[in-house]
From TrEMBL:
It comes from Kutzneria albida DSM 43870. This is (S)-3-amino-2-methylpropionate transaminase. It comes from the Bacteria. Its cofactor is pyridoxal 5'-phosphate. GO terms for biological process: gamma-aminobutyric acid metabolic process. It catalyses: (S)-3-amino-2-methylpropanoate + 2-oxoglutarate = 2-methyl-3-oxopropanoate + L-glutamate; 4-aminobutanoate + 2-oxoglutarate = succinate semialdehyde + L-glutamate. Belongs to the class-III pyridoxal-phosphate-dependent aminotransferase family. Pathway: Amino-acid degradation; 4-aminobutanoate degradation. Gene3D superfamilies: Aspartate Aminotransferase, domain 1 (3.90.1150.10), Type I PLP-dependent aspartate aminotransferase-like (Major domain) (3.40.640.10). InterPro entries: 4NH2But_aminotransferase_bac (IPR004632), Aminotrans_3 (IPR005814), Aminotrans_3_PPA_site (IPR049704), Class-III_PLP-dep_AT (IPR050103), PyrdxlP-dep_Trfase (IPR015424), PyrdxlP-dep_Trfase_major (IPR015421), PyrdxlP-dep_Trfase_small (IPR015422). Keywords: Aminotransferase, Pyridoxal phosphate, Transferase.
């Protein structure tokens, strides 16, 4: 946790990165594999709501939450003490050897919080990719079918099966093949890049026609979709797209798997993004925001589907680790008590208004979109939809130099995305957005 005297606002006392960070970065390059990158090689010492304190005494504004993870903050007192308390009792038994109640309580919370009032079961894992892999295992086992449909711009992870499910070649897939078979990709609803006026229903019909003709419902175990795409560029499908895909899946006995690893746990202003259009998936994968930064992931789904798998068919040594479960229970309590869904909606109002104002002044912003605390600006050559990845990178860099952590995303690398912790103080968020505006003024000529 940050020391009691830690600054409560952005404070730069060196260049970014500072000399100590540069030194650590040099050592890192001698020991850490180059394939593991960092957006901003500033070495962090502690955190407080919306702020990261580095080894040089700088305080940075965090508009990334470690990629949508630290929604309750990176040092939430309730999470810290739950972790300490659990660690002092026991760190691990393996739930598959001798179980413990924390795991069960997390599954009870998942049953209550995820969409739908049907009977549910959950299984816990360590990472988002592992949850997605298991959702596919379960869907195949329960349906006796093999094919999996995913969408353009999708991101589902970096393991072998999830690389196959992920759309983008660089950096995720390049020269890492061969990839798992029986994965089929269809067009997403992407309002900025679809033909003008294509409705959600029409975009769904386009995808469904392709599935019908190229895969066939009888061969299809599941349709896997992010309700709002994350790494793909915060692509929000046109209204009606998700419900129509869900309706077709239900009609054809195909399982709908919602990957809510990035959108879940209050991030978009509701507990889960499917809730915005009343869609109830058969299976849902969660991770990232679930446990305040501890590694935890889950598959939650209809009891009869989940329980179709034979005993011993699912699991892993660390899945549902007791410390991670304790952190999740504390995180969920903070989300309830501080009404972080409402906080996400408030962040949406503030950030969307600021970005729309910027879009009015800078025609390089082709579209501003997003929900809750998942807000993006897509940068293009003015008057076109031609992506401008170079400009996007330069604006992100200008923010970093001014001590604001922002991330980029998108198939074309041209999306600036904001994922602030939901507990970010109003003044910190506002200053972060001021810095973003200043970066546009400086970089765009
Ligand atoms: C991050 C992410 C994953 C992969 O999660 P990891 O914990 O990095 O394996 C899968 N799906 C979505 C939508 C994600 O955002």
């Amino acid at each position: 946790m940050a020391t009691p005297t830690a600054p409560t606002a952005r404070r730069l006392v060196t260049e970014i990165p500072g000399p100590r960070s540069l030194d650590a970065q040099r050592r890192r390059l001698d020991t850490v594999a180059k394939g593991v990158g960092s957006v901003l090689p500033v070495f962090v010492e502690s955190a407080s709501p919306g702020l990261l304190h580095d080894v040089d005494g700088n305080t940075l504004i965090d508009l990334g939450s470690g990629i949508a993870v630290t929604s309750v903050g990176a040092a939430a007192p309730a999470v810290v003490s739950a972790v300490q308390e659990q660690a002092s009792r026991f760190t691990h038994t393996c739930f598959m050897v001798t179980p413990y109640e924390g795991y069960v309580r997390v599954c009870e919370e998942l049953a209550e919080l995820t969409p739908g009032t049907h009977a549910k079961r959950s299984a816990l894992f360590n990472s988002g990719a592992e949850a997605v892999e298991n959702a596919v295992k379960i869907a195949r086992h329960a349906t006796g079918r093999q094919a999996v449909v995913v969408f353009d711009h999708a991101y589902h992870g970096r393991t072998n099966l999830t690389m196959a499910l992920t759309a983008k070649n660089m950096p995720y897939k390049h020269r890492f093949g061969p990839f798992a078979p029986e994965v089929y990709r269809v067009p997403m609803s992407y309002p900025l890049r679809d033909p003008q006026g294509l409705t959600g229903q029409q975009a769904a019909a386009r995808a469904i026609d392709m599935i019908d003709k190229q895969v066939g419902a009888d061969n299809l175990a599941c349709v896997l979709i992010e309700p709002i795409q994350g790494e793909g560029g915060f692509v929000v499908p046109a209204p009606g797209f998700l419900p129509e895909i869900a309706r077709w899946c239900a009609e054809r006995g195909v399982l709908l798997v919602a990957d809510e690893i990035q959108t879940g746990f209050c991030r978009t202003g509701t507990w889960f993004a499917c809730g915005h259009e009343g869609v109830v998936p058969d299976l849902i994968t969660t991770a990232k925001g679930i446990a305040g930064g501890l590694p935890l992931a889950a598959v939650t789904g209809r009891a009869e589907i989940m329980d179709a798998v034979h005993g011993g068919g699912l699991g892993g040594t660390y899945g549902g680790n007791p410390i991670a479960c304790a952190a999740a229970l504390a995180t969920i309590e903070v989300m309830r008590e501080q009404d972080l869904c409402a906080k996400a909606a408030e962040i949406e109002r503030i950030a969307l208004a600021r970005l729309r104002d910027l879009a009015g002044r800078f025609p390089v912003i082709g579209e501003v979109r997003g929900r809750g605390a998942m807000i993006a600006a897509e940068l293009v050559r003015p008057g076109t939809t031609e992506p401008d990845a170079d400009l996007t990178a330069r604006i992100a860099k200008a923010c970093h130099a001014r001590g604001v952590v922002v991330l980029t995303a998108g198939t074309y690398g041209n999306v600036l995305r904001l994922l602030p912790p939901l507990v970010i103080p109003h003044a910190v968020l506002t200053e972060g957005l001021d810095v973003l505006a200043a970066a546009f003024t400086e970089v765009v000529r």
